[in-house]
Design a protein that fits this description.
The chain is mainly beta. It folds into two domains: about 5-175, no CATH class; about 180-290, no CATH class. It contains three helices and 19 strands. The protein has helices at about 10-20, 40-50, 55-65, and strands spanning about 5, 80-85, 90-100, 105-110, 115-125, 125-130, 135-145, 150-160, 165-175, 190-195, 200-205, 215, 220, 225-230, 235-240, 250-255, 260, 275-285, 285-290. Strands 1, 6, 7, 8, 9, 10, 15, 16, 18 and 19 form a ten-stranded mixed sheet that branches. β6 (about 125-130) and β7 (about 135-145) form a beta hairpin. The protein is elongated. The N and C termini lie far apart (about 45 Å).
Length: about 290
Amino acid sequence: MLILFAGCKSNNSSSAHYHHQLWRFPYKDTSFKWKNFERQNDELKQKFIQSHPSDVNEGIKMYLNPYGIPPEPGKPKSAIHILDINNDGIDDIIYEGYSGGEPTLTAIYLNTPNGFKLIFKDEQYVAKLDFKDKRLSAIYMVDPGCCAAYMVFSKIYQIDFKDDMPVVKRVFFTGHYQLTEFPAKYLNSPVKLKTINDNVKLRTKPLIANNDSLFLSGDIHMGNDLGKIQKGGLCKAIAKMKDVKGNEWWFVEVDPMTKISGHVFYDDTDTNKGVSAKLGWVRSIDVTNK
């Protein structure tokens, strides 16, 4: 049995929950390597390929006969990673590879006496794995989109085991324009902020750059502003820096319940993806932490 919560359903508690959660995403961190987690079990990989689980069937077929040409050596086994997910001494599988369509698919399967049991799937790539008591406790996913997409989505799913059953809950979801500038250093602890002015502009970098151009699926937006936050808007600062003129800026995650007007953002349209907290820079003179 899998219990998957896609997001907070209560409008009354979502802002409080958002400000109190302490999850952090490893933005721009490329240090994750499967070789640091996986073990060798080619026999299990072959068994998984032969079983053709329905969720990865089309992707595996693409590896076996990609576009009508001979498969590359070692594939599709290179997309199959062997880990013991629930610390029961039995090897399980995380598949990260072809979906049968444009996006990459990541899917987690428990190896049970009744076959491979799907416990999680999402589009695109794994950015990080957390383990607690030798059990998988969190999976961090990054979705850079494809084709003309210009948003990048970052998600963290917490995995708990209750009565030996995995319970998966999304606890973190942000979205940002693909060319957003990220800080080199982050705050030790996030700071809750509130806008004190109207039309506070969320920007791609800690600088007012009205001559910059943002490319939005073929359209061009002049300036590095991403949208406007009205007075009383809530956000969480995760970094702070000064520009060349000494002006102070905060790098923030805007509360999903705070409206951003005139924005360039979009969210994943798939079922249950929900609303992401948008990322960007705001001037410190436009916000307060009181």
